[in-house]
Amino acid sequence: MNTILILGLIQVLVGIFIFLALRTQMLKQQSMSEKGQAQIAKELEFSIIDRLAKIEKNVQGDMFNFHTKLEKRLGENFESLSHNMDRRLLYMQNQVDAKLDKGFEQTTQTFQQVIERLTRIDQSQKKIDALSTNINSLQDILNDKKARGAFGEVQLGNIFKSVFGVNDTLYKTQYTLSNMT
Fold this sequence. Notes:
The chain is an all-alpha fold and 181 residues long. It contains three helices and no strands. The protein is rod-shaped.
């Protein structure tokens, strides 16, 4: 924009310079006759008007060329800026997507671990319930003297069998005592 103004000012100054040069030439020729001077003044006036019209035409042409180039450069810069912004936004979107995917993967893994642990806890709870039931059954058996004796007898028989095998010479089960009991 400043370049156009400077070019315009230069052309106007050139026009003024030409005008002053012609005026100086006119003053020199004042010694001529009145008729010759009027003729020269008209010729000078037409010459100045013609030169100023040419200067104006050149300035307009230069301004049009400058405007066209400026418009083209602004369009190119806008396209480049738009392309850069699109590229950066795509990069940022990819980064956000990657971080979200990573976060979702970690969350999924955490949920899977929690589910596995809850499954183990549930299985352990079932085992504890079964053991509790067995302990209650054992307690019921051990509360009754007769049942406790039968249980002890069976356990002792199992111990002998596992240690000595089935051997009637070393031990006997259901041995009858001398008082026949």
